[in-house]
Design brief:
Elements: E1 4-5, E2 7-10, H1 26-39, E3 43-47, H2 53-65, E4 70-76, H3 79-88, E5 95-102, H4 105-111, H5 116-131, E6 137-142, H6 149-162, E7 166-171, H7 178-191, E8 199-204, H8 211-221, E9 225-228, H9 242-251, E10 257-258, H10 266-277, E11 294-295, H11 298-306, E12 325-326, H12 334-343, H13 350-366, H14 372-382
Parallel strand pairs: 1-10, 2-3, 2-9, 3-4, 4-5, 5-6, 6-7, 7-8, 8-9, 11-12
Helix pairs in contact: 1-2, 1-10, 2-3, 5-6, 6-7, 7-8, 11-12, 13-14
Bound molecules: 3-methyl-2-oxobutanoic acid and zinc ion.
3-methyl-2-oxobutanoic acid binds next to strand 6 and strand 7.
């Protein structure tokens, strides 16, 4: 059965790189852009070219380096920004200018001190101007999450009439509930004039921990592009995590949707971004955290040793992790100890296991985790002849 493709728009190098302490140099950005290209993302947002000469140079260099993905540069709805973005993208095989303006009452009143009509005028002018440089223009309605749907549909209709190919509906402040975001996207699908000429995109922030749920709700409402970052990094609490939405689409919604991502590269990609940005991944992070496929309680360990699927819904190899791990702690039982002992060369008989377990629990009560080295030392002390 044919399934709909969801475009994966990665903004690790733009929204992600805005995170304090995550600044990358140009060589690092090129390495990550190449890795994203190999991972199979459809769009790489490479930076915000007007923001600094360094960002401009990085977008230019990434445009030259990337072979398959569209390369995108961010701009405000300001001619100079757009011109600068166009210049930095001139060597991209598939260039896209991303331009837009705030549309919520909050932004209209306190950021721009202007009127709704003026916002529509500026949005139209920005898209038209961007179209003089490139065919592929994405329009963002900043703070769309808090924008009244009727006005949002008017702005989006104007952007499509001006030539926008993608309509980005950011929940900039991470405000929406999934049902609201789904309804917002569905409303736009119904009410934006000429919507068949553009695709709707999600861009969700994680202030309430809902970025992934909202992106998926957006897809249910009719969005066909998801903006996301590796490890969910981004402004404040971050963005939708690429690895999470990809695995949800792949694993739970695969009858309806697909992406172009090679999921086996997800773990390596996560580590590469984390290392280069010196931004650790929380151990319990879904899909790519150190503990995502690690089992530490005795009941779970026993279940996993009997059949991995007792406690795992994803085969770790699907995301590039060799195997599930059984972590030895004071909560572990005999099954886990026997399993790990076998891994280090000790296939224990029942009476030996009983002896080993007593020593193991003593050791585990003193240490948070009994490592492979601890285990080997303990077992060789107990069973010298069997080593
Ligand atoms: O969160 C946001 O609104 C953004 C836009 C600039 C796309 O990052
Ligand atoms: Zn953002």
């Amino acid at each position: 059965m044919a399934t709909d493709k969801i475009q994966i728009f990665d903004t690790t190098l733009r929204d992600g790189e805005q995170v304090p302490g995550c600044k990358l140099n140009q060589d690092q950005k090129i390495i990550i852009a190449r890795e994203l290209d190999a991972l199979g993302v459809d769009v790489i947002e490479a930076g915000f070219p007007i923001s600094s000469p360094g960002d401009f140079a990085a977008v230019d260099a990434i445009s030259k380096a990337v072979k398959h993905a569209t390369v995108c540069g961010l701009s405000r709805a300001v001619e100079n920004d757009i011109k600068c973005a166009a210049e930095s993208l001139k060597n991209a095989k598939y260039p896209r200018i991303h331009t837009g303006i705030g549309t919520s009452e909050m932004h209209i009143k306190y950021k721009f001190n202007t009127t709704r009509e003026e916002i529509i005028r500026r949005a139209t002018a920005a898209v038209k101007y961007a179209k003089t440089f490139v065919e592929d223009v994405e329009f963002y309605a900043e703070d769309a999450g808090r924008t009244d749907n009727e006005f949002l549909a008017r702005v989006c209709s104007a952007a499509v009439a001006a030539g926008a190919t993608v309509l980005n509906i950011p929940d900039t402040t991470g405000y929406c509930m999934p049902f609201e975001y789904r309804e917002k996207i569905a409303y736009l699908r119904e009410n934006v004039v000429g919507i068949h000429k553009a695709i709707l995109s999600t861009h969700c922030h994680n202030d309430l921990g809902l970025a992934t749920a909202n992106a998926i709700a957006g897809v249910e409402g009719g969005a066909r592009q998801i903006e996301c970052t590796i490890n969910g990094i981004g402004e404040r609490a971050g963005n939708t995590a690429l690895e999470e939405v990809v695995m949800i689409l792949n694993h739970r919604m695969g009858n309806t949707f697909h992406t172009g991502i090679d999921t086996k590269q997800l773990n390596r990609m996560s580590r590469s971004v984390s290392d280069m940005m010196s931004m650790p991944v929380q151990p319990n992070k879904a899909i790519v955290g150190d503990n995502a496929f690690a089992h530490s309680s005795g009941i779970h360990q026993d279940g996993v040793i009997k059949n991995r699927e007792n406690y795992e819904i994803i085969d770790p190899r699907m995301v590039g992790v060799d195997h599930s791990s059984i972590i030895l702690t004071a909560r572990s039982g005999r099954a886990a100890l026997a399993y790990r002992a076998k891994e280090v060369g000790y296939d224990l008989f029942k009476d030996e296991l009983d002896v080993a377990y007593v020593s193991f629990i003593e050791l585990a009560d003193r240490k948070k985790e009994v490592t492979e080295a601890d285990l080997s030392i303990m077992l060789s002390g107990l069973f010298k002849a069997r080593a």
